[in-house]
């Protein structure tokens, strides 16, 4: 197994790279959120994690609700807390233990889509609902966690956005990514704008969790560290997350969440 480069230690690198566009098909209609802030200009490219890559390619090959801490809709936070970091780590491990390891990371730039900060948690919840229902229709189990960030500045790697880690079997990826732009149009009430959503496999390869489980596990830890980077450095170090703290700004409402099947109650059971 290849060893991580020195540059990958303690946070890795923060890259920019273009992403492939996806098609779309019609799905559920919903009442759109009423955006207050205009969508930002179509500039910039997506942030990307530098995953650990293999020397050879890997062989490709339940109903959940919203879980996690119940925060008030108007609660303001500026960083992840110790109990949130502990919950995210435990949820990721439990997802693997029940056979639903996180295989995909999707980033949604809600500010770029015209969703104001105070509505971001609601928008993420509606997106996850659609994702969950789509996979259940195809008799696939699902587990997920998400973290909100809000980095001041302009461009598609700034402003309010969501990082979503979730389980999706390789055979359902094409079908689901074709739905995502339709979901965003239904949620925001606006036409889709290029660069709002970016999605890729954990470790870059479909089916890596089957073809090379050890490498998938390493890459899943990289992805988990990436979404936890808004925690203070002392918390990251105490949790054993090899990531450098990066301030992730003011969030209104829930800052992070997990599906119920990997949340605290499910883990106790």
Label this structure with key terms:
9 strands; 269 residues; alpha+beta; 5-stranded antiparallel beta sheet; two-stranded antiparallel ribbon; globular; disordered N terminus; 7 helices; single chain
Mean of residue pLDDT values = 79
Determine the number of helices (DSSP H or I, runs of at least 4 residues): 7
Q: How large is the share of residues in beta strands? A: 15-25%
Q: Which structural class matches the secondary elements?
A: alpha+beta
Biggest β-sheet strands, sense, barrel: 5 strands, antiparallel
Work out the number of β strands.
9
The strands making up the biggest β-sheet line up spatially as 7-4-6-5-9
* H and E string: EEEHEHEEHEHHHEEH
Amino- and carboxy-terminal Cα gap: 35 Å
Radius of gyration: 17 Å
Stretches where pLDDT is under 50 for at least 5 consecutive residues are 1-48, 55-71
Shape: globular
Helix content: 25-40%
Describe this structure in words.
- With 269 residues, the protein is an alpha+beta fold.
- The protein has 7 helices and 9 strands; from the N terminus they run E-E-E-H-E-H-E-E-H-E-H-H-H-E-E-H.
- The strands form 3 sheets. Strands 7-4-6-5-9 form a 5-stranded antiparallel sheet, with helices on both faces.
- The N and C termini lie far apart (35 Å).
Helix-strand blueprint:
Layout: E1 14-17, E2 46-49, E3 76-77, H1 82-97, E4 104-108, H2 120-137, E5 144-151, E6 159-166, H3 173-188, E7 197-201, H4 208-211, H5 213-227, H6 233-238, E8 251-252, E9 256-258, H7 264-268
Antiparallel strand pairs: 1-2, 3-8, 4-6, 4-7, 5-6, 5-9
């Amino acid at each position: 197994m290849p060893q991580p480069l020195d540059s990958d230690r303690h946070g890795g690198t923060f890259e920019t790279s273009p992403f492939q566009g996806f098609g779309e098909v019609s799905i559920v209609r919903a009442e759109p959120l009423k955006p207050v802030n205009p969508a930002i200009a179509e500039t910039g490219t997506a942030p990307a994690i530098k995953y650990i890559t293999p020397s050879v390619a890997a062989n490709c090959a339940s109903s959940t609700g919203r879980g996690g801490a119940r925060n008030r809709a108007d609660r303001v936070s500026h960083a992840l807390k110790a109990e949130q970091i502990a919950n995210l780590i435990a949820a990721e491990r439990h997802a693997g233990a029940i056979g639903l390891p996180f295989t995909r990371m999707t980033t949604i730039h809600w500010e770029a889509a015209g969703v104001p900060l105070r509505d971001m948690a609601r928008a993420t919840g509606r997106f996850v609902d659609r994702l969950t229902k789509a996979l259940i229709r195809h008799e696939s189990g699902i587990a997920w966690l998400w973290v909100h960030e809000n980095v001041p500045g302009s461009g598609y790697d700034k402003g309010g956005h969501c990082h979503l880690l979730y389980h999706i079997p390789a055979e359902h990826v094409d079908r689901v990514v074709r739905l995502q732009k339709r979901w965003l149009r239904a949620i925001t009430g606006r036409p889709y704008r290029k660069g709002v959503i970016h999605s890729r496999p954990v470790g870059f390869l479909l089916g890596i969790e089957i073809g090379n489980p050890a490498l998938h596990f390493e890459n899943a830890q990289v992805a988990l560290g990436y979404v936890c980077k808004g925690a203070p450095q002392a918390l990251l170090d105490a949790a054993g997350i090899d990531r450098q703290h990066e301030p992730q700004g003011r969030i209104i409402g829930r800052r992070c969440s997990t599906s119920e099947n990997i949340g605290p109650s499910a883990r106790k059971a």
